[in-house]
Amino acid sequence: MANFPKGFLWGGATAANQVEGGWNEDGRGPALTDVTLGGTVKENRKLTYIAADGTHGSLERSEPLPKGAHYAVLDECYYPNHLGVDEYHRFKEDIALFAEMGFKTYRMSISWSRLYPKGDEKEPNKAGVEHYRQVFQELKKYHIEPLVTIWHFDTPLYLEEHYGGWTNRQLIDFYVRFATTCFTEYKGLVHYWLTFNEINNTIMFLDFKGEAHPDSEYQTAYQMLHYEFVASAKAVQIGHAIDPSNMIGCMICGITNYPATCDPKDVLACQHTWEKNLYYCGDVQALGEYGSYSERLWKEHNVQLDITDEDLVDLANGTVDMYTFSYYMSSLVTTHEVKDKVSGNFSAGAKNPYLEYSDWGWAVDADGLQYFLEMVYQRYNLPMMVVENGLGAYDKVEEDGSIHDPFRIEYYRRHIAAMDRAIGNGVDCIGYTTWGCIDLVSAGTGELRKRYGFIYVDIDDEGKGTLDRSRKDSFYWYKKVIASNGEDLAD
Length: 491
Ligand code: BGP
What we know:
Number of strands: 17
CATH topology: TIM Barrel
Radius of gyration: 21 Å
Shape: globular
Largest sheet: 8 strands, parallel, barrel
Bound molecules: 6-O-phosphono-beta-D-galactopyranose
CATH superfamily: Glycosidases
Helix content: 25-40%
Structural class: alpha/beta
Distance between the termini: 17 Å
Strand order of the largest sheet: 1-5-6-7-8-9-14-15
CATH architecture: Alpha-Beta Barrel
CATH class: Alpha Beta
């Protein structure tokens, strides 16, 4: 017998900038993703700009803009997020397909710049507000509960350029206004909310490649995070005041860390990695205060934070109702020299000889999901939800149009079984939304060929294709899993 409770929230997840398209329609303003080119696993995605002298250029996300330059959409370039998979126009068709699979929930995000095109306006863009109302009404028609991420990597470009993005305390107020609009406008239609997607990336990302960074970069990252924590905590309080039945969660990029050897130094380094990469954010958002090890983390890089007494009150009063996280992989931590290296998503380091790696270098580790659920549940004792989990892989369309993806089914089978075991071990896990229930633009590489969906979308990395939707084998398999409430994982 499977352990999934009655009413378990089965579903899938997407993010506005990766599926919607319609990037400049109905008053939407640009976000950073709209000036971001496609890349590959080897070649980073670049941002395009026009220099002071009018010449066109592109730079890495970590590089500052040249003096006098501004981000710009260049005619000669293709931007995969501009089209996404056209969900902005096809959401009814897509929701009908989700309903056919039996989804109980659909995780999606609201594009900030669709509601506030520049980000600092006093009033929202009505067309944007109405668009999401229609989406939520459509979901309601099929009794699919929306799970809404308020911020998923898409601060309006104007706020990035004119205010310095999250390095500026004023962003808290702009975000709070945006979040308040969401809670007010969609009261009764949405009950599950997430404040910031993978909030811990800001810190994890710095150590991604194991390269040294100047202290100033840590200073910036920790300060940005603090403002995001305060914004999140304020949003939680407002969301509860507007509708006490709202369940509001944090969203953490959940990477399970293991020590690579039994050298006590590795074990300790691993524990410190959990503190920095996972507990630092989880503690503030779930427990309402910075963990005891935070001073050490700040001291290591001479970080001095702008934290007011009022901020601390907000953090204490704005704790989340549930802990949600993405889970794709585990990672090894070691103090020893590493010969066989891997790097995938935001984890990099020693290769684990017991695991297989995806075509994009991500460690496939279902047991790591059980480990994560059990470790984190013991710490916070809050309901948990796995809000992203999936395999980015190549798909082949057969001559008859069918798509056989046994590797994806196997991946999900193992991860769902791991989640089942964690629930059997006492974890209060209330939902599971697979990443990219429909093919979408990869956040990391901007590729379309890195496919995650149960639903195939006929579109390639250059935007060529009909955009037609079709069902992969995994579509029918997941439908069966949901219908049996996780009991039937067989082919
Ligand atoms: C997470 C993001 C998602 C999603 C996913 C898969 O980090 O929250 O937005 O994209 O990773 O990553 P990718 O798209 O790079 O394959």
